[in-house]
Automatic annotation (TrEMBL):
SpoVT-AbrB domain sequence ranges: 5-50
Protein's organism: Bacillus songklensis
Keyword DNA-binding (UniProt): yes
PANTHER family attached to this UniProt entry: PTHR36432, TRANSITION STATE REGULATOR ABH-RELATED
Protein's name in the database: AbrB/MazE/SpoVT family DNA-binding domain-containing protein
Amino acid sequence: MKTTGIVRKVDELGRIVVPIELRRILDLNIKDPVEIFVERDKIILQKYKPYGACAVTGEIAVDNVTLAGGKLTLSQKGMHILLKELEEHVKSL
């Protein structure tokens, strides 16, 4: 686990502000759902990603495809976006 050097106090309602620097790094926007985990004496926050959601578009559809041994789920639109970016990347090599 990496330390950030950032310390925040819990307010009287039990809230903690996540600094803008961390929200930018994690692509965490206003109203985004956050999943909370507990591991021994640690609280872990993670941007919530529903099971079966496309890794590119976030779309949940019955025709989404799971690849890479279950590590990557893509919608039809997500596949086209990813394929286009991969083709551009390969051309630049």
